[in-house]
């Protein structure tokens, strides 16, 4: 019977075959302990000299790290094992002997590991982070599909920018200029006018020369847009979504969270409703905390977001920002036109903003005024203005940065560990 490590609990007392790699090994006299991985998980296989052919035991003792094999044996319960089972080996069929595998079970520098990212992914820690990433993606689809959202794929090559074009990658598109998308939002608004509630999940790009632990050049965004949904309802959907994702990881990734030594008590506190603080209240709070350099109209940096987050044990919304530091498409606040109906969601424990969202302007004349104020003209933006001309409705949306969310939930320090092949300011390899 062929199976995988993920499903061995079904085969207790039975003989099975697993395709695996040798992650590590140790031996003690007449017993060899093989640490196996097969992509679905990790487990121990025990080879007893008296129970196997002489050549099998010799192979078990001499095989190198990351050699590949088919290994056959009986699955037995082992309460000391993280997965509760191990294999009593009967036979090993070597597929390929690995020689001089560069990432040995010792400490390596970050740059060395990044240069060998294609191999570093095989480690227990990186495996755990990628499994948590996968669970966040799986539960995202689950959440939005259950609420009748339609998945829509916006273009990656665009002729218009949702934000400031100075942070975009410019590319030559035959005889005209285009950009690598920094957000699918504008196109998702068009999709929402056709399909009601939509979401996208795909790569985005920022030509931002930042080296902080929170920034990547290429990252993945989850972006819903919702027709007939105003700001308050959008905030409720955001907190429900984040709570659902966290609970899904807690339920389905216990082994991975334990591997990462994640303090799950902090994740267990993530429940709706999330606390809220206005931009004005945040400025006052920061001044009281000694941030004398912050003034009304300033954007917040990492130290400011961390200070605000430390005052709460849950994600916190910062609402009602000045329109001058936010995007052109955000709906003005009804009580103060100098503010906009938007919110940033700040993750706990210093992980920073994971969601930015707003109610979008739906009035044609106001959007046209914004176009003039921001110097937006020409065919690249004309279609977006037209959305306000033919059956415009109140609508809202938001974007969640996947890698920052993975970093927060898994508890890793740097986002470079949260994407399979990170693109950083000075790294395009591997």
TrEMBL record:
Its EC number is 6.1.1.22. It is found in: Cytoplasm. It comes from the Bacteria. GO terms for molecular function: asparagine-tRNA ligase activity; ATP binding; catalytic activity, acting on a protein; nucleic acid binding; transferase activity. Residues 130-430 form the Aminoacyl-transfer RNA synthetases class-II family profile domain. One of its GO terms (biological process) is asparaginyl-tRNA aminoacylation. It catalyses: tRNA(Asn) + L-asparagine + ATP = L-asparaginyl-tRNA(Asn) + AMP + diphosphate + H(+). The keyword DNA repair does not apply. SUPFAM superfamilies: Class II aaRS and biotin synthetases (SSF55681), Nucleic acid-binding proteins (SSF50249). Keywords: Aminoacyl-tRNA synthetase, ATP-binding, Cytoplasm, Ligase, Nucleotide-binding, Protein biosynthesis. GO terms for cellular component: cytoplasm. CDD domains: AsnRS_cyto_like_N, AsxRS_core. Belongs to the class-II aminoacyl-tRNA synthetase family. Homodimer. This is Asparagine--tRNA ligase. It comes from Cerasibacillus quisquiliarum. The lineage of its organism: Bacteria, Bacillati, Bacillota, Bacilli, Bacillales.
């Amino acid at each position: 019977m062929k199976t995988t490590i993920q499903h061995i609990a079904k085969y207790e007392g039975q003989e099975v075959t697993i395709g695996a790699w040798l992650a590590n090994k140790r031996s003690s006299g007449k017993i060899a302990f093989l640490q196996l991985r097969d992509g679905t998980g990790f487990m121990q296989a025990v080879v007893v000299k008296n129970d196997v052919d002489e050549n099998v035991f010799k192979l078990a003792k001499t095989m190198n790290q990351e050699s590949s094999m088919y290994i056959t044996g009986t699955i037995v319960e082992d309460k000391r094992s993280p997965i509760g089972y191990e294999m009593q080996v009967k036979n090993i069929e070597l597929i390929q002997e690995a020689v001089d595998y560069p990432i040995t079970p010792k400490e390596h520098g970050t740059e060395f590991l990044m240069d060998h990212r294609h191999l570093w992914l095989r480690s227990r820690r990186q495996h755990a982070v990628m499994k948590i990433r996968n669970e966040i993606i799986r539960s995202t689809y689950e959440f939005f599909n259950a609420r009748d959202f339609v998945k829509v794929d916006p273009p990656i090559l665009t002729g218009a920018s949702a934000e400031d074009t100075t942070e975009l990658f410019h590319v030559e598109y035959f005889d005209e200029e285009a950009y690598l998308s920094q957000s699918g939002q504008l196109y998702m608004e068009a999709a929402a006018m056709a399909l009601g509630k939509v979401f996208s999940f795909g790569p985005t790009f920022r030509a931002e020369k930042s080296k902080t632990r929170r920034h990547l050049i290429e990252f993945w965004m989850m972006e819903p847009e919702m027709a007939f949904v105003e700001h308050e309802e959008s905030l409720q959907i955001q907190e429900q979504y984040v709570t659902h994702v966290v609970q899904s990881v807690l339920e389905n990734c216990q082994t991975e969270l334990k591997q990462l030594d994640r303090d799950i008590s902090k994740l267990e506190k993530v429940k709706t409703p999330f606390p809220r603080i206005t931009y004005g209240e945040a400025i006052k709070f920061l001044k009281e905390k000694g941030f004398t350099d912050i003034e009304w109209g300033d954007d917040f940096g990492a130290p400011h977001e961390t200070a605000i987050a430390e005052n709460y044990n849950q994600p916190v919304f910062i609402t009602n920002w000045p329109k001058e530091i936010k995007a052109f498409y955000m709906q003005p606040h009804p009580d103060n036109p100098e503010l906009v109906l938007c919110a940033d969601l700040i993750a706990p424990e210093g992980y920073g903003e994971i969601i930015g969202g707003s109610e979008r302007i739906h009035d044609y004349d106001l959007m046209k005024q914004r176009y003039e104020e921001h110097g937006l003209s020409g065919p690249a933006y004309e279609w977006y203005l037209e959305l306000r001309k033919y059956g415009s409705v109140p609508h809202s949306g938001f974007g969640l940065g996947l890698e920052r969310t993975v970093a927060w939930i898994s508890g890793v320090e740097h986002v470079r560990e949260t994407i399979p092949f990170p693109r950083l300011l000075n790294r395009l390899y591997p």
